[in-house]
Amino acid sequence: MKRILSLVVAMLMIISLTACNSNQGSTDKETKKIIDAAGDEVIIPAKVDTVINLVTYGCQVMVGLGFGDYLVGINVDAIESPWMAEMYPRTNEIEKFDQEASAEILLRANADIVLVQEAEQARDLRSKGVTAVTFSYWSLEDMKATIKMLGDILGGDAVEKCNKYIAYLDGNIALVENTLKDKVLEKETLYYINGVSNKGLYKTAGKGSTNSACAQLSHTIFATDSLIESPANKVDSEAILSVNPQNIIIGGKYQHVLYDELMVTSEWSNNTAVKNGHVFKVPMGISAWNRYGIEIALMITWTSAVVYPEYFEYDLVKETIDFYKEFTGITLTEQQAQYILEGLTPSGEKEITN
Known about the structure:
The chain is α/β, with parallel strands linked by helices.
């Protein structure tokens, strides 16, 4: 009898241990490896459901591509334009984090993955138990690689969506090239005024910047390429005035203020762009189209259309509506599309007037 009892106890212990091991295995998440924007191999969950994105333009990219529902945390400065909340109202409800949020804070938030801009920050966070991935780019080629990585991270339909966007960007580049290469015999000059903050008419971008790359792809000569090199963003007034740019674009939420300033500044009164009415305000969507969001694909065609309207006929309103419907999942009215093209808010007003 004792032997039978001992055998029963032993069998029960084996069954119990087997069940424990089985349960433990079911709670372990499967993983996959990705290569992040810094070239680091990072092990992440095979299925990612929640993301904290500490990169300003990274948040805008995710919302722009229709991936907002993954976000449980965003950079405190991510909402640069009222159109972001208009197109994705939940933006206002998502928890906001400082770009340098600590590992302790991020671990407490318990997201599947955290996207950061700097490689060293990502490595430091990983050493402290946070699944952190570098999400960063400073060129169009790097942008495409990073968006492809985003698709790999999210998996499923996101892979196809990211690849579709990359194909759209490449398609717009090819469209402009094929349309203008035999028509624009002498490229026009283009000067960019950075209106993200109200820092005057000489805050700009230089050679090596995304703005310069877009200008070149639009068959224009970026006026500051020969004057400053990225990351420098301030140009000498006499130097740029001597270039006498034929076109001027102003981006950012202070664009209307800077436009008004430009029109009444005496030293610019004889400038070719000012005299010919070739001063343009960059469209403002989820972010300014010339920034680092997905609208940069539209920036290339928009620039070509406003600088060379006689050669590049393009229905900007229709393309704007089609773009946001395809990638963001939002159906805009023609009036809303026009507001975006004019750099206005969803209510048709200037965001900042003084």
